[in-house]
Design a protein that fits this description.
The chain has about 525 residues and is mostly helical. Helix content is about 65%, strand content about 0%. The protein is globular. One of its GO terms (cellular component) is membrane. It comes from Vitis vinifera (Grape). This is Amino acid transporter transmembrane domain-containing protein.
């Protein structure tokens, strides 16, 4: 009775005489010690005195609220929802986060387009060094490993504790380890995976365009063909023209076309190779040449080929940023659905390509160009010119499409410098100028340094932690799993192994550069 009397003694807001007093509020004991309840003047412990009104003249009307203060189980989630949906105004001006109406289908298109490419065509080369057993084992383990780190990135995209959405890989890394470490360890690999990939796409797209022209025109063509540099320029003009689409969501259709063509040329190449049968004298014994040290570096190179076959982790957070998100409907749910679908298709494309290509060509597969070069060298007279031309066309279209999604982080980076400084969105003419400058800048690098592919192993080793190691360390830092738990051991093990693999690949790349040398022909692409 004493508690009831104390609660009843709490001052009540005066009301007209005709209105009955408001009954006292009660709540279950499990909510009594909640922080939000201790601020309520209607609830007290036995040792507390009921608050006294200072003056009768300043009585206040209780505030109106859609969520009562005493309903604490909803208090914290509701506050997180409000923070989660509160976005940085500058995000509405940048191409990655300008539109947030994406869905699982868009995520699947973007992930599939960015996750599979011409780098997969050299997978059979790794099998010539590793052999059947270790080739399949390493390819399977690498696929599972990179899919796990991709899942980590999807989960880390948004934090219900801070309400932040990390819409860019570098933003998440800086928030986890600080801006200084971000600029030192993550900035160059991420920029290389965007800008360097676009340079490689110009080289691949321009060279394949030249091959496509030769196939279509035939041996009897009397017209003077374009030079390699001119084909690079033609490809770059098409890529720059398509890059004028405003934001990441607007290129969903382009990514769909890129994904379809990527699956198209991967499937057509391995199907034709298997249908033509094994070449005479094919051997499946692992190739061992030179000294033991050279063989060790060959094995490391093969592991690097398998690791580099999976790409696109530097774009996962950007793709997820195009989706709406709330506490009830977090973006990680549709994003993971899109990722699962796309990587199922990627597995159906990569594994038959590697296994079928190695079965058809064995140790005879060319180390430069992989299965695509083998198709042209061994079956150019046996296979229909239509099939060869269609395969080349698929590669060109996929390269143009992939250029858009890999260039988008660079477009976003350049525009963010303007919006941060000027405090207003980038005008359309300046946005077009930025993208043209980037496209033709990549063209200049492709022409000036055509031997950039010789450094791919070295630079790829530097960029490898973005895919295999950094997500594990960021998960440990942000989620803080229990020490010595299975999750703790798994992420530490994969993170350290990824950094170790990156180190040995860098060492192998340096050794190859020193041992074999680089034929540095500036401004002389072949």
């Amino acid at each position: 009775m004493r508690e009831a009397q104390e609660i009843s003694s709490t001052p009540i807001t005066p009301r007209p005489a005709t209105t009955a007093p408001t009954p006292p509020v009660s709540c279950p004991p499990s909510q009594f010690h909640s922080p939000s309840l201790t601020r309520s003047p209607l609830l007290h412990t036995d040792n507390e005195e009921a608050p006294q009104s200072k003056t009768p003249k300043a009585s206040r009307t209780p505030r109106l609220s859609l969520t009562p203060r005493f309903i604490t189980p909803l208090g914290s989630p509701m506050r997180r929802v409000l923070r989660l949906t509160k976005l940085d105004p500058q995000d509405a001006w940048l191409p990655i986060t300008e539109s947030r109406n994406g869905n699982a289908y868009y995520a699947a298109f973007h992930t599939l387009c960015s996750g599979i490419g011409v780098q997969a065509l050299v997978l059979p080369v790794a099998f010539t060094i590793l052999g059947w057993t270790w080739g399949i084992i390493n390819l399977t383990l690498a696929f599972i490993w990179q899919l796990y780190t991709l899942w980590l990135l999807v989960q880390l995209h948004e934090s219900t504790e801070t309400g932040m959405r990390y819409s860019r890989y570098l933003q998440l890394f800086n928030a986890t380890f600080g801006e200084r470490l971000g600029n030192l360890l993550a900035l160059f690999p991420i920029m290389y995976l965007s800008g360097g990939t676009c340079v490689a796409l110009i080289i691949i797209g321009g060279s394949t365009s030249k091959t496509f022209y030769q196939i279509v025109c035939g041996a009897t063509c009397t017209k003077v063909p374009l030079t390699t540099v001119e084909w690079y320029l033609v490809f770059t003009c098409a890529a720059v023209l398509l890059s004028q689409l405003p934001n990441l969501n607007s290129i969903a259709g382009v990514s769909l076309i890129g994904a379809v063509t990527a699956i198209g040329y991967c499937t057509s190449i391995w199907v034709v190779s298997v249908a033509e049968g094994r070449l005479p004298g094919v051997s499946y014994n692992p190739v061992k040449e030179g000294t033991d040290i050279e063989h060790i570096f060959s094995v490391l190179n093969a592991l690097g080929i398998i690791a580099f076959a999976f790409r696109g982790h530097n774009l996962i957070l950007e793709i997820q940023a195009t989706m709406p998100s709330s506490e009830k409907h977090p973006s990680r749910v549709p994003m993971w659905k899109g990722v699962k679908f796309s990587y199922t298709i990627i597995a159906l494309g990569l594994f038959p390509l590697a296994i079928g290509g190695y079965w058809a060509y064995g140790h005879l597969i060319p180390s430069n160009g992989g299965i695509l070069t083998a198709l042209y060298v061994f079956h150019s007279q046996d296979v229909s010119q239509f099939v060869l031309g269609l395969t080349s066309l698929f590669i060109i279209v996929n390269a143009v499409s992939s250029f858009q999604i890999y260039g988008m982080p660079m477009f976003d980076f350049m525009e963010s410098k303007y919006t941060t400084r000027m405090k207003k969105p980038c005008p359309w003419w300046l946005r077009s100028l930025f993208r043209a400058m980037f496209g033709y800048g990549c063209f200049f690098v492709a022409v000036a340094i055509p031997f950039l592919g010789s450094l791919a192993g070295l630079i790829g080793g530097i960029a490898l932690p973005v895919t295999l190691a950094y997500p594990c360390f960021m998960w440990l830092k942000i989620k803080k799993p229990k020490t010595y738990s299975p999750t703790w051991w798994l992420n530490w093990g994969l993170g350290v192994l990824g950094m170790g693999l990156s180190s040995v690949l860098i060492a192998a790349g340096i050794y190859v550069v020193i041992d074999t040398g680089i034929e540095a022909k500036f401004f002389h692409p072949e």
